[in-house]
Amino acid sequence: MKTAIANIGTIVTGNWREPFAKADAILMSDGRIASVGNLRAADFAASDVVIDAEGATVIPGLIDSQVHNTFGDYTPRQKAVGFLESYVHGGVTTAISASEVHVPGRPHDPAGIKALALAAQRCFQNYRPGGMRVWAGSVILDAGLVEADFKELAAAGVWLAKAGFGRIKNPYDYVPLIQWAKSAGFVTTVHTGGGSVPITGDHLLAMQPHVSFHINGGPTAMPDRDYERVILESDTALQICTAGNVRTALLCARLARQHDAFDRLLIATDTPTGFGILPVGMLFTITHLASLAGVPAEQAICAATGNNARVYRLNSGVIAEGRDADVAIIDAPVGGSRSTALESLGHGDIAAVAAVVTDGIPRFVGRSRNTPAPQRRVRVAECRIAQNFS
Question: Each residue of 247-286: pLDDT tens digit?
Fold first, then answer.
């Protein structure tokens, strides 16, 4: 399928060091971005769908790098069906599992732990709720797992590992498990802050995971003194979450910029949990950084897109030729005092999501059901297939 977006006002690339593309159109073909700019009349004529952005802003689809999925589009924690599909209406095109810890009666023996991760990974391999891509099947690090287990899982396609749940009570006991997982090629993540196993800066520095999950608190934060140490003494990515301490999220963002570690700042929601379901959680945290922490809105968007993609080795999250065709069109909301999406975010207003495209296929065009209406009339200008994208 070929989809084109025309009349774009601003393109945010997802690369925070070069956050803008000098172009006003994007062509997508067979699930990838084929061209950014330099589109001719023949390109539009050959497209199955042409979306008129009417001067709105195009960004990479948001990557929520901490979602508590189970199986299918259901969460027992909130007894809700369809929450992932609803997140698409918040501009989220990719979700990454925080491990399937909320599966009722989840197993604790090594065979069951491995089976749970593999089943979840397989469940979402071809299932895309609302068009979203879900990277599921994060193995829960627990007592009894040995180095061979990680090699076995890696060979089967599992590549995520999570510390912070299970029967382990001493955080330092995670150190060998994380090293085994890293050696097998896994991206390793660690629950940070309060919880059943409180994890602080000392523990993170001993473990050296790829990602500190909800470093601003899950839901309670570790001591302030730990943040600068983690930034300066490790390469661990600093994931800040909507379902966490907002003050600490702002502190972490300021320190990351101060120490030239913004590449490692990631945005996620850590939902659904006790905080509930937050379809616009990613946009909320982007707004917090842009309006309260002095982070330019375009860079805050990159922390929710390209930064996540780099740490998790994904082909999405960046608007460039050859990358996954996952994009969102956002705009200033109706009733707001600013005229563009980026100005609105910097002012503290949530942006309106006017369209989402995943895998090069429009999922909706015109208005999200979860955000205010856009000021601009984003619409399908041409459609050569029998489908309604409203």
Answer: 999 999 999 999 999 999 999 999 999 889 999 999 999 9
CATH topology of domain 62-279: TIM Barrel (3.20.20)
Phi-psi region of 57 (alpha: psi -120 to 50; beta: other; left: phi over 0): beta
Per-position b or e across 118-152, b if 16+ CB within 10 A of its CB: bebbebbeeebbbbbbbbbbbbbbbeebeeebbee
The distance from CA 338 to its chain's CA centroid, rounded to whole angstroms, is 26
The residues pairing with 64 across neighbouring beta strands, listed in sequence order, are 95
The segment(s) of the chain belonging to CATH 2.30.40.10 are 2-60+319-383
* Closest by Cα among 10, 94, 4 to 59: 10
Residues in Cβ contact with 16 at an 8 Å cutoff, skipping those fewer than 6 apart: 262, 263, 298, 299, 302, 303, 306, 307
pLDDT digits (tens, 9 = 90+) for 19-51: 999 999 999 999 999 999 989 999 999 999 999
* H or E element, residue 78: none
Backbone angles phi, psi at 197, to 5 degrees: -130, 95
Tell me the DSSP string of 106-148. Answer: ---SHHHHHHHHHHHHHHTTS--GGG-EEE--EEEP-TT--HH
Domain with CATH 3.20.20.140 in the chain: 62-279
Number of Cβ within 10 Å of residue 81's Cβ equals 12
CA distance linking residue 124 with residue 118, whole number of Å: 10
Of 355, 350, 390, whose CA–CA distance to 372 is shortest? 350
CB 283 within 8 A of CB 350: yes
At residue 166, the pLDDT reads 80
As a whole number of angstroms, the distance between CA 93 and CA 325 comes to: 10
Distance CA 158, CA 167 (A): 22
CATH of 2-60+319-383, one of 3.40.50.970, 2.30.40.10, 3.30.450.20, 1.10.340.30: 2.30.40.10
Asked if 262 and 300 touch (Cβ cutoff 8 Å), the reply is no
